[in-house]
Write a structure and sequence with these properties.
The chain has three helices and three strands, in the order βββααα. The protein is of the alpha+beta class and about 80 residues long.
Length: about 80
């Protein structure tokens, strides 16, 4: 996966498929935090605090996004 920052967006390209992805504010924040292994619960708690949002909402939205990334083979789940 190649990525580059352009203004307030991240543009990613899958070397494997050639598909491009654009990520804005929240999705970009999640993507950047995935640069090092992180537990989903810790990721959600940090995002909820950073955006002052209800944890339940952040968890639902983040899990949906992570599932999308996994389906696109952009990330892989690791066992603890």
């Amino acid at each position: 996966m190649l990525d580059a920052s352009v203004d307030d967006e991240s543009v990613l390209m899958s070397i494997e498929t050639g598909h491009y992805y654009t990520m804005k504010v929240t999705s970009r924040a999640i993507w950047e935090r995935l640069g090092t292994p992180v537990r989903v619960g810790d990721l959600c708690a940090a995002l909820a605090a950073a955006y002052r949002a209800p944890l339940a909402t952040v968890e639902a939205d983040t899990l949906e996004f992570l599932n999308y990334l996994e389906a696109q083979k952009m990330i892989e789940r690791r066992a603890e």
